[in-house]
Amino acid sequence: MQTDRTKLAAWILLFCFAASYSLVADDDKEHHHHEDLNETQLGTVHFPVSCSAGVQKPFARGVALLHSFWYEEAEKEFEDIAKDDPQCAMAHWGIAMSIWHQLWNEPDAKVIARGLSEANTGEKLAAKATPREQLYLAAIKAFYGSSGKLDHAARARAYSDAMKKVYESYPEDHEAATFYALSLLASEPHHDETFANRKQAAAILEKLFAIEPDHPGVAHYLIHSYDKPQLAQLGIPAARRYAEVAPAAPHALHMPSHIFARVGLWQDDIKSNLASIAATRKTAAMHMGGEGHQFHAMDFLFYAYMQSGREADARALMDEVNKMPEMHDMYGVGFDPHLATQAQFAALYPIEMRDWATAAALTPMDVPGTASDSFGYWAKAIGSAHLHQTEEVRKDVHAIEIIHQKFVDQKKDFFAEGTESDLNQAKAWLAFSEGKYDDAVAILRPLAEKEEALGDEPQGIPSREMIAEILLEAKHPQQALAEYQADLKFSPNRFNGLYGAARAAEAAGKQSEANEYYALLVKTCDGGSSTRPELSHARELLAKK
Questions:
Q1: Which residues in 34-68 are b (16+ Cβ under 10 Å) and which e?
Q2: Coil, strand or helix at 158
Q3: Cβ-contact 129, 85 below 8 angstroms
Q4: pLDDT tens digits, residue range 30-58?
Q5: Which of 142-156, 461-475, 515-529 has the lowest mean pLDDT?
């Protein structure tokens, strides 16, 4: 399920709507508000170009916007520069960079054609550009201008190879180093368990971070480099810094939560995403781009609420999303991000709350253009399995099989892979409902190993936590405790992980160890208003110590 949650979050972030949250004067719609954004709001960037003196400051601002993935506004900035200085070759580099969202998506043929056009325009103007600028232009041309037979991964590698040349040719150019590091992340091989590219990127960025702590791209890309459970502790300094560096950028306010979620710092996670949502709505009211950032932030916010005893806040967030009007995506991909988020929350909430009856009674939501209905059947299967309603689980497994096969037949690998994860977990719970505990564990173990090896984002229920729960239900508490302990290394401070470990330790006769987990659970939920019986049980036991 984690693979599916991760992919849904990525799609929601990528393909979101353009909406306004307040009435603004019509003439304000054409006002980009860029001049209101300075270094204290976007971070410090030094990117000298051979364009006119009047566009030097806007150009640096455009690059700063790029570094915080505020691509819509970066594109506007560089388009304005191209109008103000028609001979500025690098303005077209900036536009081409703005329409390729390096860590988010794979440009379609239309975007590639436009990017190539901008790169060619920049190349035609490059006679008056510096040799350094010509290398930057050649690098983006390597991405857009590669043979049409090349797939996206090959294009990304071609761009990275070209940026390496810029980096090596101009070792004092910190922008070259920063963009090269980003290119290493963007060209990371699919399902790479070695994290070689991100480790190489981090090595470059850490040197820059010591020199330029106020650079938005350096802190930002360090967070991305370390966004794996095996590396997350290394990302805490950058996570603490990035929001301070670029407090006006919604993505900069959200991005630290990627590290906070990895290490189980839920209150920091919550603060980060509340700030990001508020900033997104403020800038949306000013008709600035990037409104879709709020859904990705909501995804993380909901998860943090559920792990920290703030289910009332999670329900309030669900209600807020449910009341949102119908929305239309920005890039023509064809789904409503508010409905996709609604479907995700509806499926996850009862599972996290261990409310099996509600989960079993769900009506899966069909969100056109997504695999969201698979989420609902996944939750139904788990709920029904806990109620030992085997025939209902079998129906849910069959429903996911149909959805999965549809995506396989359509060659939509993106959704096929996610629904395959849903399907396998549902099959494990079918085996559980039949009393075949060993079979259930055997199905889940390779899923758990894959999730941990790849460092999937903590957006769902870890497969290893499921293994631990099944072992505990099968009266193997010592084995269950070992699995919970292994899981908590990858998903620290998860509510059900901590409670499950405490229960397993108790059942294994290790009351002292159980008390440690109960104490950590209570500490993790400090400040919340949870009435969950699990938390009450923990507090009662600790009070008797």
A1: beebebeebbbbebebebeeebbebbbbbbbbbbb
A2: helix
A3: no
A4: 445 555 666 678 999 999 999 999 999 99
A5: 142-156
Distance CA 353, CA 6 (A): 20
Q: Ramachandran region of residue 33, left (φ > 0), alpha (ψ -120 to 50) or beta?
A: left
What is the token pair recorded at 454?
């790849």
pLDDT exceeds cutoff 90 at 291: no
* Token code pair at residue 209: 């971070």
> What is the separation, in whole angstroms, between the first and last Cα of the chain?
38
Q: Per residue in 186-232, pLDDT tens? A: 999 988 999 999 999 999 999 999 999 999 999 999 999 999 999 99
The pLDDT confidence band at residue 12, using thresholds 50, 70 and 90, is very low
**Which region, left, alpha or beta, applies to residue 31 given φ > 0 means left and ψ of -120 to 50 means alpha?**
beta
Buried b (16+ CB within 10 A) or exposed e, 198-215: bebbbebbbebbeebbeb
CA distance 87 to 74: 19
**Which tokens is 267 given?**
């209150």
| Cβ contact 109:121 at 8 Å | no
Q: Report the pLDDT value the prediction gives residue 334, as an integer from 0 to 100.
A: 64
Helical residues (DSSP H) of 286-389, grouped into ranges: 293-307, 311-323, 337-352, 356-360, 372-386
pTM of the model: 0.91
Domains detected in the chain:
38-247 (1.25.40), 341-543 (1.25.40.10)
Listed as own residue / partner, the contacts of 391-394 with beta carbons closer than 8 Å and 24 or more positions apart are 392/360, 393/426, 393/429, 393/430, 393/433, 394/430
Q: Kindly tell me the sign of the dihedral angle through the C-alpha atoms of 526, 531, 536, 538.
A: negative
DSSP at 532: -
| Residue matched to tokens 């455009």 | 62
d(CA 140, CA 442): 47
- Give the tokens for residue 308: 């920290």
Q: What residues contact 463, with CB distance under 8 A and at least 6 apart?
A: 1, 2, 425, 444, 445, 447, 448, 451
How far is 99 from 114, CA to CA, in rounded Å? 9
Output the CA torsion 199→204→209→215 (10° steps): -110
CB 19 within 8 A of CB 284: yes
Longest dimension (CA), the chain: 80
Q: Higher pLDDT residue, 505 or 412? A: 505
Give, for 13, the enclosing helix (H) or strand (E). helix 2-14
* Alpha-carbon 531 to chain mean position: 30
Tokens 């590290």 label which residue? Answer: 259
Amino acid at 5: R
List pLDDT tens digits, range 373-408.
Answer: 999 999 999 999 999 999 999 999 999 999 999 999
**Is residue 184 pLDDT above 50, yes or no?**
yes
Cβ count near 395 (within 10 Å): 14
Give the Cα separation of 28 and 35 in Å (integer): 14
Residue type, 526: D
Phi-psi region of 77 (alpha: psi -120 to 50; beta: other; left: phi over 0): alpha
Rounded Cα–Cα distance for residues 401 and 210 (Å)? 51
Q: Could you give the CA distance from residue 425 to residue 309 in angstroms, rounded to a whole number?
A: 26
Closest CA to 290 of 27, 3, 21, 38: 21
